[in-house]
Write a structure and sequence with these properties.
Layout: E1 2-7, E2 19-20, E3 27-28, E4 34-39, H1 42-45, H2 60-63, E5 70-73, E6 86-92, H3 98-107, H4 109-113, H5 131-144, E7 148-154, E8 157-166, H6 176-181, E9 189-196, H7 205-219, E10 223-227, H8 247-252, E11 256-260, E12 266-272
Parallel strand pairs: 9-10
Antiparallel strand pairs: 1-4, 2-3, 5-6, 6-7, 7-8, 8-9, 10-12, 11-12
């Protein structure tokens, strides 16, 4: 279930204001105005009926995001997580953020069982390199500027990321045969993977990561962006299979469906201008 939450311009950093939503009891803090539709916690979702089932259309400033890297997502009532708000900052993956990225991956057995977010790169075929080698290859890419991601941090700790990059940087997407059969032109950018630390899941971190990736793409010149999320309408799906996010999440950020390339996977796309 979705709620529409308005992010309003915050005061200077020493005077940031938490802006409560009058109906949904959630709030955000941001450095620039942007609206985002995020999942409600279960305790709130049971209290809304027909109105909350309406599809939320993102406003124009989500479809063309502004330069903002700070947001606070609402707390949820889950054991071991607590209910306090989570303040998040998005940063580019580079030499300075690699230690935080690597720590989160190491805390989760290399992320996706030793993948190290290498699978969509040319050298990322499974069962070829050991997890240690995959870590080294990923770090080399980051050091040389050949890997991109919006890294999401809570204070000094990385809590998740969204991987993106030019099409030739991420050639190993899924459903290649069907994808190529309907291919007209390669996109300028691809968004291929999300990862969120286990204790921060279901808190809107992936939404923040996607917004961060779009902002970084705009700052790099913009262009046509493509991704391959899963449509989970009417069914439950394990987060393990949602490595590319959901169609609903991408639609909240202004993406449109292009064509279906798997049983439940779609090519979605949008364009974004230079920031």
């Amino acid at each position: 279930m979705l709620a529409r939450i308005q992010l309003t311009p915050a005061a200077p950093s020493d005077e940031r204001r938490s802006v409560p939503h009058p109906e949904w009891r959630c709030f955000f803090v941001a450095e620039a105005g942007v609206s985002v539709a995020l999942p409600l916690s279960r305790s709130d979702s049971t209290k809304r009926t027909s109105r909350s089932r309406r599809r939320v259309r993102p406003p124009a400033h989500v479809r063309d995001p502004v330069a903002s890297s700070v947001a606070t997502v609402p707390g949820v009532h889950r054991p071991g997580v607590g209910s306090g708000p989570l303040q998040l900052v998005t940063k580019p993956l580079d030499r300075s953020t690699w230690p935080d990225f690597a720590q989160l991956a190491e805390d989760h057995h290399g992320a996706w069982n030793g993948c190290w977010c290498l699978n969509f790169h040319a050298e990322g075929s499974p069962n070829v390199h050991s997890p240690e080698e995959r870590r080294r290859l990923k770090q080399e890419r980051v050091r040389e500027g050949r890997a991109h991601a919006a890294v999401v941090c809570d204070d000094a700790h990385c809590v998740g990321w969204c991987q993106y990059g030019p099409a030739n940087e991420l050639p190993r997407i899924k459903h290649q045969k069907v994808y190529r059969a309907g291919l007209r032109d390669l996109p300028d950018w691809r968004i291929t993977c999300f990862f969120v630390g286990r204790i921060h899941r279901r808190r809107g971190v992936a939404d923040v990561a996607l917004a961060g990736a779009l902002r970084q793409i705009a700052q790099s010149g913009g262009g046509i962006i493509e991704s391959y999320p899963e449509d989970t309408t009417g069914r439950k799906t394990s987060p393990w299979f949602l490595y590319n996010g959901t169609v609903a999440m991408f639609e909240r950020h202004g993406f449109e469906r292009d064509r279906q390339i798997g049983k439940d996977h779609w090519v979605v796309h949008r364009s974004i201008g230079r920031a």
